[in-house]
Automatic annotation (TrEMBL):
One of its GO terms (molecular function) is protein tyrosine kinase activity. It is a multi-pass membrane protein. It is found in: Cell membrane. This is Polysaccharide chain length determinant N-terminal domain-containing protein.
Amino acid sequence: MTDSAPREQDLRIDMPSLLRALLHRAARILFVTAMLMVIAYSLLMFVPRLYESSASLLVGDRTTVFTRSPSETAPQAQGAGADALMSSQIELIRSRDTLMAVIEDLDLRSVPEFTGASASPISLILGLLGRAPEERSLDATVLRNLNDRLTVIRQRDSAVINVYVRSESPVLAADIANAIARTHVERRAGLSLSDTADATAWLEREIAALRTRVSEAETAVANYRIENDLFSGANNTSLLDQQLSEIAAQITAAQERKNTALSRAQLIRGLIQSGQPIDGVPAVRDSVVIQQLSQSKAALQGELAQRSATLLPNHPTVRALFAQIGEIEVQIAEEGRRVAAALEAEARIEETLEASLREDLATAKISASTASQDTVRLAELEREARAQSDLLETYLARYRDAASRTDTGSVVPDVRLVTEAAPSSSPASPRTGMILGAVAFVALAVQIGAVLFGELMSGRALREVRTEFDAESVAIVPAAVGPVDADLPAPIVADGLSPEEANALGAEMTRHWAGLDTGKEGAETISQTLPATTDLEDEGDAGFLEAAAEPEPEPEPALEPTPEPAAAVAAASPVGSPARTNLAHASRNELGNLAADIALGRVRVVVLASLTGAADALEVSRSLVNQTLQRGLSVATIDAASAEASEEAGLTDLTNERASFGDVIHKGANEALGEVPWGRQRAVDRRSMKAATLVEALTDVYEVVLVATGRIGMASTLPLFTGLDCRLVLVIAEDMPDARIEAALDDAASLGFEAAQLVCPPARRARVA
């Protein structure tokens, strides 16, 4: 007898069903959309048309080299200063004074749209509801309405400000925009002129005070000069400095004269002693006696020469002439000695004069040292007087410039009108096309969303995907689940098979296990039966085929068919429902199903919690690690159950802020295995969120993450992993009461784990069909 039971079931969205539902209600959707558009258009017909006009103002310094003072430079506003200037201009344009001037100029108090006399649909509706607008004065009403119709913005990063005004009349909108711009320009001119006038008055007060201070400072300088004899001569030099310079010059001149006289006297004496003529020395040549003697000597020498030509050397006349010449030379030498003596006397006089001058210099130096100390104070007084005088001159120049501008009213404002507003030809609001398009889009979106939501909530757009197997045939699972008993049909799951292919494969395998074909040839037949899309031709599945090809032992009495997996029961049944009966019996094959789900990628994070002890959870973790590594997948394990201190940093060190994430992850014996031990600390910090963060980080590196949390109870570490996208697996004993299992499932549900899968430790698994 065959009994078809659903092995797997899944809910998927039936897109054709959703499209049929939309098509079925298409007429209603279009009708409602059209009605809403008609209603919106009807309402827009009552909304007054507003026309918008804009005027542009250019903000910037308008002074030129002809209007600035010679010492004044052109101001340059950049960065935050420019932004602040533009913001200030915008606020001035929107200020009450500017707008009130426009209201006065254009007489907006008589325009109904600004006084509120024209009733709008909104005001009528509010009046019917008893919420009439608050009563305000006429000026306040006009000002509020003008503010509502006014928009002042700056064009990007430029110095241009646009003034936008909306009105029911295009001409009035242009007039108001131009009036606001002109009023602002005139107001800025008035403000600039007022600022200049204020500056002129302030400068006048400061100049009067500065004049008094300058007079006092110059008087103090003069009095100090008189009190301390600090008079100045030519080139603004003090008399003491001039006296020192003159005495030093006289000393130098006396030294030169003395040295010259001594040198000449020594030269004359040396020439006389050596018998050489002294006529060439300037001091001797300038002597009148020497000049006469030299003339007499010359005359005698001439006569001697004449006589020597006719007389003999011993002639008395010749000898007399020689005697006369010798006497003259003796007189010249004597006269030279007198000249030398006079020069020496002159040198002594100059030396005496030099000594006297040096005494005068010493006295002058003493006076100059005292005067230097007084000069410091004098220089200070002069600097103060000069500073006050310079400031007075500056203020006088600025005062003259400001006074001339104030008197003539020649101040140029820093803003000007560059573009006047023109009447608009098309209304700016309301934008009928855009509004109707938005109404149509929202109406369609809301109606389509409501239809789709209703179909999904009713379940009509959801369909079940079922894969049914013959109860007498075997289910197909990956070889990584574990060894297959040769005497019983082994459970196998091949992903990607249709129900017909799975039933055909199960029937073929049943014939082989019944003894029709138990050799290697049968295994080859099975492998040919599988479609090319299955994954049974890898290394793990080859082990399964080899096990299936081995001789079949004597058959044992068949056990009852295995009920549905506990994970499916726990997920589909609420906590405490009658469907949880015999959960311990249903969990005996779930370890293989769990390994199959891991191998097929249906689950990546597994949290193991035990009802018997931490050793069972760790044993299941090791079994899953072995089977996962056999499938060629990378796996990481976290020991949150053993409570045994390890030599390496682990989970407890991480949660207690004693280690970083990289310090607690260690490589195992296999390159594809990562291990996080318990750690060096005694307990984990249950307030830490790093345990869940560690699991999320490991899922980015490893394909599978296994967390063993130990026995469920007050000391369990299971709450650390609440909120993870994981599968909770409860490790139970085969003979454990259902009440205890249901209590554990209730505890798991209270922590946020909606479903739990029940497994038995590998050592306690029974042989079941």
